[in-house]
Amino acid sequence: MGVMPVKRLLLHMGVPIMISMLVQALYNVVDSIFVSRISENALTAVSMAFPMQNLLISFSVGFGVGINALVSRALGAGDGKRANIAARNGLLLQAISYLIFLILGLSAVELYMRAQTNVEEIVQYGIEYLRIVLIFSFGLFAEISFERFLQSTGRAKYAMITQLCGAVFNIVFDPILIFGLLGFPALGIAGAAWATVGGQIFGALVGLYLCVKKNPELSISLKGFRPDGAMIGEMCRISIPSIVMTSVTSVMTFGMDIILHGFSSTAVAVFGVYYKLQSFAFMPVFGLNNALVPTIAFNYGAKKPERIHEAVKYGMLYASAIMFAGLLLLQLFPKELLLLFDAQDYMLSIGIPALRIISVHYLLAGVCIVCSASCQAFGYGVYSLIISCVRQLAALLPAAWLLSLTGRLNLIWLSFPIAECVSIALCLPLLRLVLKKTGMSVRAAER
Fold this sequence. Notes:
This protein has helices spanning 6-36, 40-76, 80-107, 109-114, 120-135, 138-152, 156-179, 189-214, 229-261, 265-301, 305-332, 334-339, 345-358, 362-377, 381-404, 409-412, 415-437, 442-446. 83% of the residues lie in helices and 0% in strands. By secondary structure, the chain is mainly alpha-helical. The protein has one domain (6-446).
C-alpha cells in the first residue's frame, strides 16, 4: 500500500471487493425477487423491514470502518502491536453491537412494523422476517470483522472470498427454503430470512479460517485480552459518525415509507425495489471505498500526501464511471427490471418514472461517496456524518414531504437529485478542509 502505483493499487485491492459487492447486490435482488413470488404484500413487508435491517448493517460496517482505519494506520506506521490491539477491541465492539440487536429482535419488531402500516398481513410478514434477521445477526458482525481484518492488511482477495461464500450460500438457499425444494420444508418469507442469516454465518466461518491461516500480521486470539479504553474511544470516534451516517439512511427510508404509504402500499414496494436495484451501482462504489480507506489511512500514517491525492482523484474517477453505468441501466431498462419482481400494471406505472427520475442523482453521487470515505480515512468521520445528515434529513426528507403535498407521486422522486445537489456543494469544501487540517493538502503533496 506504500509503494505500488496508486492507480493500480486501487484496482488491485478494489476490483476483488467490487466483484464480491456485486454478488452481494445480486443476492439482495434475488432475495426480493423470490419474496415477490409469495405476494406483493410480502415484498412490501421486506421493504418496510429494510430500515431496521440497514440499521443492523450500519453498526457492523460502521465499527468495520474503525477497525479498517486504525489497523491500517498502525501497520502504515510499522506498529504491529497496536494493530493487534485495534483488531481485538474492534471484535469487542462488534459483540456489544450484536447484543443490542438481539434485544431489539426479541422485544421491538412488532411495534416497529405497526408504526408503518395497519395492513395485518404486511405486519405479520414483517415480524416473521425481521425477528430471524435480528436475533441471528451474530454471523453478520463476525463476517464484517474478519473481512476488515483481511482488507486492512491488503488481502482484498481473501475478503472477497469471504463475501462470495456468504452471498452464494444465500442465493442458493433462498428458493430452497422459501418454496421447499430438495426435501426442505416450504418456509415462505421466513425461508428468505434463514437463507440470509445462514449466508452470514457461513461467510463468518470462512473469514475466520482465512484470518487464522492467511493473515499473519494480525492475531485475533483473545488469550490475555483486556479492553483498551483509549483504543475503544479512538475507534468509537471514527466509527460512531459512520454508524450514525449510515443509520440516517434508515431514518430516511422509514420516513419515505410513511410518506409513500399515504399514496399506496404499492408505492412503498416500488421504493423497496429501487433500493434493491440501486445496490448494483452503490455496492461496487462501497467496495472501492474499502480499498480507498486503508490506502489513504496507510499513506497518512506513512506521511505520503502525493499518494493520498492520487488515491482520491482515481477514486472519484472510478466511482463516477460505476455510477454512470448504473444510471444507464435504470434509464434504459426500468420496465424489464421491475418485471423481475413480478410487477403488475399499477406497479409498472409507478415504478418506471420512479427509477428514471431517482437515478439522475447518480451523476453526482460517486464523487460525494468518495469525499465522505476520504474524510473517514483521516479520522474525520464527523464530517461524513454532517454530509449525510444534511443530504438525507435536512434536504431529502423535507423535499419529499413538501412535494407529496402536491398529491403527485412522481414529484416525490425529485427529492433525490435535489438532495444530491446539496450534498456535492457541501462535501468538496469539507474534504479540502480535512486535507488542510491533516497537513496533506496540495502544497504538502507538491513538497
